[in-house]
Amino acid sequence: MNKIVMFMLAAILTGCGKSEPIETVEALAANPERLEKLRQQCKTDRTKLGDELCKRVAEATNRRFFGDGKVPYNPPKEQPKF
């Protein structure tokens, strides 16, 4: 009985380790150096970083490229001549 309790206690304490800080999409988009570093790591070793962080990196990259989406499309006044 004591062995079972000790095993359960050890299993619970193992799960209580330090968790990595969660980086938000906004924080990543605001820090281009960190974003580029994580993009490279997601390309080379996605399993180590995890899908959730790599998805946030991709979303932050899209936000930096496309902007906030609040700028309306303004077509040119004259049609382009080809």
What would your notes on this structure say?
- The chain has a domain of about 50 residues.
- The protein contains five helices and no strands.
- It has about 80 residues and is mostly helical.
- Helix 3 packs across helix 5.
- It starts with a helix and ends in a 16-residue tail after the last helix.
In helices, the fraction of residues equals: 55-70%
Give the C-alpha Rg.
22 Å
Order of helices and strands: HHHHH
State the helix count.
5
Uncertain spans: none
How far is it from the N-terminal to the C-terminal residue, by CA? 84 Å
Average residue pLDDT: 83
Global shape: rod-shaped
- Structural class by SSE content: mainly alpha
Q: Note the beta-strand portion.
A: under 5%
Largest sheet: none
Total beta-strand segments: 0
Secondary-structure topology with pairs:
Elements lengths: L1 H13 L10 H6 L1 H13 L1 H4 L1 H16 L16
Helix pairs in contact: 3-5
Write a brief structural summary:
With about 80 residues, the chain is mainly α. It has helices at about 1-15, 25-30, 30-45, 45-50, 50-65.
Search tags:
82 residues; mainly alpha; rod-shaped
